[in-house]
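Blinded run. Sample ID left blank on purpose so nobody reads anything into the name before looking at the predicted structure. Input follows.
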Amino acid sequence: MTENLHPSQLHQHLQMYAYAKWSSWGSLLLTVGLLSLGASLPRQSKTWVLAASVGTLEVGRRHRQTAKLLRESLGDIDRASRLNFQALARTQTQTTAQLALTVGSFDQDWKPENLITDPVEYIQKKQKHVALVGGTGDGKSTFTQYLSSKIGGRVIVYDSDAKPDDWAWLDQADVIGRKGNFKAIDTAMGNDLKTLEELVELRGEGGDNAITGRERFMIAEEFPVLVDECDNSTPWIKRHAKRGRRYKQFICALAQNDTAENFGLQGDKDTLYSCFCLVRLGQFGRDYARTKLKDPQLEQWLKAGGKKRFMVDDCPCELDLSNWGTTTSAPVENSGGGNEEARSQSSVMNEYEQFILNWGQQHPGEVLKAAHLSRASRLFDGMQPDEVRIIFASMADRGLGEVQGNGDRLGWRWSQ
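Blinded prediction complete.
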C-alpha cells in the first residue's frame, strides 16, 4: 500500500493514524475519569455523567476502529514512518543541495557560447526597437544614453517622473512630461503619429534621401504608467513598432516587467517579440536565465558581472565602459570637406557638447576628463562620470574630436 502512495498522501495517512490512535486512548481515559467523578456526585447528576461517559466511550471506539483500518492499509507502520521521513527530508534539503552544487561548481572563467559584446550591432542587425526591462539602480538610464549615442538621431524622452538632474545630457526641451504632465506626453505622442504619416508620404515621393535629417530616438520611461494615463501611448507604440525603423524613428520603451500588457500590447505578444529586442537588466536578466532558459550556470555568470552583464533576448551580453569609446561610424577625414562636416555637426550640438567643443578648441591637444568637467563648470553638476564619457564617445563618433583611454580613464580631446 505504501508504495502506491504519493509522499504527501503517506504523510497525511500517518497523521490520521496517529490522531485516531491517541484520540481513542484519550477517550478511554476521559471515560474512566467521568465514571470516577460520577461516583461521588448526587444521584440527580449521575445520569448526565453516565450519558457523557457513554458518548465519550463511543467516540473512542470509533477512533480505535479508524486506527485499526489505517494500520491495516499502511501495513508496517515503522517502515511507513521511515518513508515519510525520507520524503520530508528530500523536500527540505533539495533546494539547498542544488544551490550548493550550483555555487560550488561555478567556474569563474566560464563564458556562455552565445555571448555578445556589442548589443547595438545585434539590435541593428535585427532591425528592431528595444523594450528595456530593469529595476531601480539597474542602469536603465545609462544604457539608453549609450544606445542613443550609437544609433543616433534627435533624442526625445517621455518621462513623467524625471528629476531636475535626470537626462542632463539632453536639451531640456526634449524631456517631456516632467512633474507628471501626462497631457504634454499624450499630445507629443499624437504629434509623433502625425510625423510618422508625413515621413511615409515623403519617403514614398522622394525615397530615403527625402527623410534624411529627420531621424529620432524616442525614449518612453515607465511605459505601463503611460498606458494608463495617455490615450495615444498604445497606438504610438504599435505603429512605430511596425513601421518606425523604416522611417528612422527608433523607440526604446522602459518597464519593470516584460509582459505585453506593460508595453500597451494587450493580447499582442507577437508584436512585442517580433518588433522589439528585449533587454533585461539586473535581477530580471538573472530570473530569465533561471526560469525561462533553465540555466543556473548562466544565472551565476550574470550575477558575478554585476551591471556589466545582462540579457538581450536569449543572448547574454557583457558590456564594459571600455567598449563605449569605439566608433561605429566612419570618422571624419582631416580635409576641407571633413571640416565642413564637423562644422555642420557642431551646429546641432546641445549645450553640454558645445561647452566641451569650446574647451577643446581653447586647449588643443589636451585630454579632457569627466572629473575635470565637473570642476570647470556648474553646467555638469549632478551629471555622473559615466554620462560624461558617453558624451565624449558620441562626439567622437560624429567626428568631433577623439577619445583616448578606456573605462574610467576615458577622455576626449579636440583634433582637427
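Unblinding after everyone has recorded impressions. Residues 336-413 form one domain.
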